[in-house]
Amino acid sequence: MAFAPDGRLFVVAQDGTVRIVKNGTTLPTPFLKITTDDQGERGLTGIAIDPNFATNKYVYLYYASFTPVPHNRVSRFVADGDVALRSGGAVVETPILDLDNLSTVNIHNGGAMNFGADGKLYVAVGENANGSNSQNLNNLLGKVLRINADGTIPTDNPFFATASGKNRAIWALGFRNPFTFTFQPGTNKIFVNDVGGSAWEEINDTVRGGNYGWPTTEGPTTDPRFISPFYAYPHDTAAPVNGCAITGGAFYNPATMRYPSDYVGDYFFADFCNHWIRRIDPVTKTVTDFATTTTPHPVDLKVGPDGNLYYLSRGSGAVVRVTYTGSLAPTIQTQPASQTVGTGESVTFSVVAGGTGPFSYQWQRNGANIAGATGSSYTLSSASAGDNGAGFRVVVTNAAGSVTSSVATLTVKNDAAPTGTISSPLNDVKYVGGQTFTYNGTATDPEDGTLPASAFTWTVDFHHDQHVHPFVPPTTGSRTGQFTIATTGHTETNVWYRIHLTVRDSGGRTQDSYVDLRPTVVPITLRSNTPGLSLNLDDQPRTLPLTTDSVVGVIRKLGAPSPQTVGGVAYQFDTWSDGGSATHDVATPAVATTYTANFKPAATSPVVITRTPIADATANAGAPTTSNGTSASLASQGTNPGQIAYLRFALPAAPAGKTLTGAVLRYRTTTLASAGTDEPHTIRVSGDAWSEATLNWANRPALTGAALGTLPAGAVPNAAYSAGVSPASLQPFLGTSVSMGITSAGTDRLWFWSREHAAASYRPQLVLTFS
């Protein structure tokens, strides 16, 4: 609902009707009625009045359109007095924004709209029961949008440069079902009420470009990627503030004050399930009860130009004004209603009073007090023909005064109520997702006999926890009907479907009956082959192992985020036990099932480590007691005389998660004409007990084991070469040191530079590759 500057209150109904409340009275002729897809939570759900309404008369509506496919639309209409402007008999409509196509799931629709102090139109959009939409800048779902009044997109929007097309309208993201929001008058502060999933209801102090975390987080969070709610209350019934669906919000900053001064600047918010309204101080975050019991299911709050709070009650189909009386006389918040009953039936009249209690009540019939009728309700146990036309009212009194309710007229007909029976399905029958049910009923009436099909009205509601989602709208004209259980949307198990039957006889008497369908529930388990990893269920991160109940046939989304790191080791997704891709949907099976995600060490870039010798020297048989450790060159020769080039390398430990997969010895031949070689030279492991300063042919360590590698034949002077070295042979020496000797079988001599060479690039190098 939305107030126009002239005080008229525009109220939208899900079926596409807009009505005007003027001077406290609902006008009989609707402002307009548009065709809308009102299945589930869809329909006409949002309205905004243009800031320049006094001159342009613009009214904006958010509704679900059928054409060309189901999607939400924002359109502009023009007020022509108390009805919408028409041309040729048709309402003049100007679409300004068509949102993304909707899936077959008909919940989480959002739809609230308000103009900001900047003159831009802000629009709250639900994620259509697909959490991944909320974090995706390629669609408008799960977002708060900001557009110009003509539907164009402001260039200063936060994602204008990075998004494309209509997605540039995104102003904030990470919402589930932002059902209501409002600006604080005179400021740019915007509080968005996001209806939560299974745990928390949120008030988000929403800023330009902010990300509020759904589906990764719900409720308070310390994740630095997201903005934690300004305030959140849990579903836990043990908490002092609890509920299950936050559905209304309004700042109290009116031009005319009707409430005490400590209310000024406070934010009112309401809960759909528990029927309360509370207020929170935006500075201290102190929460105070305001209305602990309202008429059922408040869905919107507004502060009127008169300074009073108004709320829209879906349960009673009424707009309620809340006035502050302090210690003054009581007020009537809900008047007793006129009723029609049959002879011999009971009837109850009730009233809701406001003000300072305690209250006393005195019911009257035709102006005379009824003895003993001193409660907030009065029941006439058996109406007779003599009660027809009687008027009932109540006087409510407190210490400061009294107030008299309006008169409720009782109509008594010599017409018994009909009896309707739902013959199938039976009550408490179990269902699974995707199952089709056919319902049938019969109805008789004492006066009319068997009632015709036109007397039947069927409705199907989907119940979740303490609140209700319309599923099949009221349908009249058949004794039977059919519907299919949803497979997507709510994944909780505290759900059920209720089939209502209302039958009406020729005299207008009605009777209601219903049956409930209960879910078939099985446990599903998520596991990983690697401890410490997490998986996503319905886009939300879960700690493993996880076992949770699920309704058979309902689609669940399994996700294996990849890569993940545990203990310094990176893992990447490999397979699911059911063969699905990393993220895929599964229909909950009929039996308990475990889904295991298999990960493997992630393929990462190899680590290359290069080492130069920590010691090197040549042992020369031609000078068996001479040490050559300080020489700038090394020599290798099998005989005439024998020479062995010894090198010692300090080897690193393998990096975490890596294995030695390659080793290469690099060397450079000297400039001597005889530096080249015509035959291969072999690298072997040697004993490590030698010193560069004292090594000679006489004390040289033995060469042991198989060859580590071979220096290639055909080397020429003053050239760079490399020789492969066996990684497996070096593996035992990782983290310590290894000595190796190089020699040949023949007389051919190889000269190459040692670690003593002045230029680092000329020195020997052992290059190790870890993968």
Summarize this structure briefly.
With 771 residues, this protein is mostly beta strands.
Q: What is the overall number of helices? A: 2
Radius of gyration, CA atoms, in whole angstroms = 41 Å
Could you tell me the number of beta strands? Answer: 66
Going by helix content, strand content and strand pairing, the class is mainly beta
* First and last CA, distance: 64 Å
Strand content: over 45%
Q: Major sheet: size, sense and barrel closure?
A: 6 strands, mixed
Question: Percent of residues in helical segments?
Answer: under 10%
Shape descriptor reads elongated
pLDDT < 50 stretches: none
Task: Write down the overall mean pLDDT.
Answer: 93
Short key terms for the protein model shown above:
771 residues, mainly beta, 6-stranded mixed beta sheet, 5-stranded antiparallel beta sheet, 2 helices
Please describe what this structure looks like.
It is a single chain. With 771 residues, this protein is an all-beta fold. A hairpin with a 2-residue loop joins strand 52 (564-566) and strand 53 (569-576). The chain is elongated and about 140 Å long.
What's the arrangement of secondary structure elements?
Blueprint: E1 2-3, E2 9-12, E3 17-22, E4 25-26, E5 32-33, E6 44-49, H1 53-56, E7 58-65, E8 71-80, E9 83-84, E10 86-87, E11 90-91, E12 94-101, E13 110-115, E14 121-125, E15 143-147, E16 170-173, E17 178-183, E18 190-194, E19 200-205, E20 231-234, E21 246-251, E22 267-271, E23 276-280, E24 287-291, E25 298-303, E26 309-313, E27 318-322, E28 331-334, E29 339-342, E30 347-350, E31 352-354, E32 360-365, E33 368-369, E34 377-380, E35 391-398, E36 401-404, E37 408-413, E38 419-424, E39 429-431, E40 436-445, E41 449-450, E42 456-464, E43 467-476, E44 480-484, E45 495-504, E46 510-519, E47 521-528, E48 534-537, E49 540-543, E50 546-551, E51 555-559, E52 564-566, E53 569-576, E54 583-587, E55 593-601, E56 607-611, E57 615-620, E58 633-637, E59 643-650, E60 660-668, E61 681-686, E62 703-711, E63 720-724, H2 727-730, E64 737-743, E65 749-753, E66 765-770
